[in-house]
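EI: anyone free to look at a 82-residue chain?
SC: sure, send it
EI:
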Amino acid sequence: MPKKRDRNYREEYDNYHGKPEQRANRSKRVLARRDVEAKVGAKAIAGKDIDHKKPLRSGGTNAASNLKISSVKANRGWNRKK
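SC: here you go
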């Protein structure tokens, strides 16, 4: 059985996650979670994700009308390859 290749997180950050655009998007996602947490409370969103109805990469915003609370499976489980 072939050995599983270890993931190089440093390289991944340098090549993608550390880019200014990706850092800005991550900041927007954190701020969205904080906004929703302030409105509904930490217990209401514990173990849940804050979903952007229109994704940031498609021009979505952090407006309250564009955010919804969803389960982790529902938010992260969709197939990106479609």
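EI: The chain has one domain: 9-76.
SC: 👍
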